[in-house]
Every structure is written in structure tokens, then in C-alpha cells.
Amino acid sequence: MTTVDIGTWNTPLDRDAPFYVAGHHGLVGSAIWRHLQERGFTDLIGRTSSELDLRHREAVFEFFERNTPSTVVLAAAKVGGILANSTYPVDFISSNLQVQVNVLDAALEHRVERVLFLGSSCIYPKLAPQPIREEYLLTGLLEPTNDAYAIAKIAGILHIQSVRKQYGLPWISAMPTNLYGPGDNFSPKGAHVLPALIRRYEQARTNGDEVVTNWGTGSPMREFLHVDDMASACLHLLDHYDGPQQVNVGTGEDQTIREIAEMVAEEIGYEGRIEWDASKPDGTPRKLLDVSTLKASGWKPSIPLREGIASTIEWYRANIDRVRE
């Protein structure tokens, strides 16, 4: 049995110190912002991309000089589903590397005490043993449909580890599984699988379509975590974890895409036929995270998948005129 290292950090963050959430309007960043407010943080700092383009190095350094945060969560990233990742790989690797290097370098120059870098479970090899343990990083080939994005995130993990090694700062990384929830991207070209399914079935229900066709075979297995649970895990790690290895964040449970699609259809109220286009890519056959490290630190998720899907559908219907396209 592998020994789980939960780190040594056990000093909760100062709730009144400046806390910068990079990407606070995104799916993850907005959930983290809400959670921090609920937990009594009084000096939250956020900038929209129009106010601060994190790809512009000089502007990022000036921002850190003016605001001097004591904690940073780097949730800003260019993200997308299989179609977007495979169509625009240059955009994904270039934008994400620029953002990461600029924010982490600026944080280092100002010796920010605590930094949490958020990555993705796509960093692991396509055919990694299941469930995926943290030490499987860099042990095999990546899924080719999103390898550019994955390489950028792997670079971020190594950046964090390098800062720890060279400067001794207690910076950490967290690797979430597939996330969903309020504020997600429902765009036909940019959405991940769950919001894409919600949009597709809601449109089919509204239009009275008799058939919905989904990509692939429906056989790949995926793990999903509600973004509010992810936000809770982030603060938990900042309060309780200090170690060089990235920490997996998930539920430790998965379902087939076909099962997820059926669950979405049921919650939407769509009663038509479901078909699958096997000529389209499935992506990684299975991606289930081993969450032993996080579990050993005292955290577990609280939002069941069906309940989370139902509340996300409710949010989508209430915000359909202003969801991200």
C-alpha cells in the first residue's frame, strides 16, 4: 500500500489579508470567490480580462506592485472541450503558458506567501492505470486531442515545484477532475461534455426534436465534480496542505458518457431518441482520479452528481440569455 503524504501545512490563512483570485469571473474562479466570501475573507482582489490582460507581462508586474497580495489562486486559463483543443492547439499552449509564467513570476518577485496553481486531470497519460495517482505524471503519452493544453499545465506544476525547491515558498498545485456548475461555458465550440449535453438536450426539448446525436460511442468513463466542491477543496488545501506534489481533486467515482447523457436527458425532461456518432473521437477511454491524498487531509465532496446536474440545468435556464457563448 502506498503511503499518502498530506504535507505539513496546518496554519489557516489570514481571512483579512489581500487575496488575489486570477480568473475570478470564470467557472472555477467565480466559485472560489463565492466560497471565500462565505468563509469570511474581507480583502478579495479580482480583475476582469479587459481590466488586466494576464498575457501582458509588464501589466501583471505593475498589478502585483500595486496590490501586494499575500495569497494567489491562479484559476485563469484558456479552456475548452475536445473540438476547441484539437482545432486551436497553438492558442491553448501559448495563452496558458503566457498567463502562468507572468503571474507566477510576478508572485515570486513579490514573495507571495501562498500560491495555488490549478491544472487539469488531462495532465496524466492517456492510458494511465486507473484510478490515476499523482505519481503517474510524465509516465506515458498524453491524449492527442488536448496535449497542447496539458503540456502548458504540466509546465505550471513544474514551475510551482521549482519555486519550492529554489526559494522554499510553500506553493502548491491542485489537479481537478472534470468540473461543471453555474457559470460554465455552454458554447457549441468551446464547451466541455456536460454543459454541451445540457445545452443540446435543452434545445432539443424546446424545439421538439425527435433525435439527439452525441459525439463518439458513449463508452468513455468520466468523473465529474461540482465547481462549488472544487472551491471548497481549494481553500481546504491552502489551509491544510504543503507539499511539492500536485494534489488530485475529485470524487473518486465515475460514469460512462452514455450514463451521463441519459441523466441529463432525464433531468431536462427530453423524451426523444438518443443516438451516437461513432465517427467522432471519444478522447481518453477512462479518467478517474485517485483522491487518497485529498481524502487523507480531511476533505470530501458534498454535492451528488444528479443533484449538481439538476441545479446546473436550473441555472442555465435562468441565465440562458447571458451564458458564455
Task: Describe the secondary-structure layout.
Layout: E1 19-22, H1 27-38, E2 44-45, H2 57-67, E3 71-74, H3 82-87, H4 89-109, E4 114-118, H5 147-167, E5 172-176, E6 178-180, H6 193-207, E7 211-215, E8 221-222, E9 224-226, H7 227-240, E10 247-249, E11 255-256, H8 257-268, E12 273-277, E13 286-287, H9 292-296, H10 305-318
Parallel strand pairs: 1-2, 1-3, 3-4, 4-5, 5-10, 6-9, 7-12, 8-13
Antiparallel strand pairs: 8-11
Helix pairs in contact: 1-7, 2-4, 4-5, 6-8, 8-10
Structure characterization notes:
The protein has a domain at 19-182 and 224-252 and 288-302: Rossmann fold. 47% of the residues are buried. It is of the alpha/beta class and 325 residues long. The chain has ten helices and 13 strands. A six-stranded parallel beta sheet has the order 2-1-3-4-5-10, with helices on both faces. Strand 4, helix 5 (147-167) and strand 5 (172-176) form a beta-alpha-beta unit. It has helices at 27-38, 57-67, 82-87, 89-109, 147-167, 193-207, 227-240, 257-268, 292-296, 305-318; strands spanning 19-22, 44-45, 71-74, 114-118, 172-176, 178-180, 211-215, 221-222, 224-226, 247-249, 255-256, 273-277, 286-287. Helix 6 (193-207) crosses helix 8 (257-268).
* Percent helix range: 40-55%
> pLDDT below 50 for ≥5 consecutive residues: which ranges?
none
Largest sheet: 6 strands, parallel
- Overall CATH architecture of the domain at 19-182 and 224-252 and 288-302: 3-Layer(aba) Sandwich
CATH class of the domain at 19-182 and 224-252 and 288-302: Alpha Beta
How much strand? 5-15%
* Order of strands across the main sheet: 2-1-3-4-5-10
Give the N-to-C terminal Cα separation.
46 Å
Mass-distribution shape: globular
Please state the average pLDDT score: 93
CATH structural fold name of the domain at 19-182 and 224-252 and 288-302: Rossmann fold
* Topology order in helix (H) and strand (E) letters: EHEHEHHEHEEHEEEHEEHEEHH
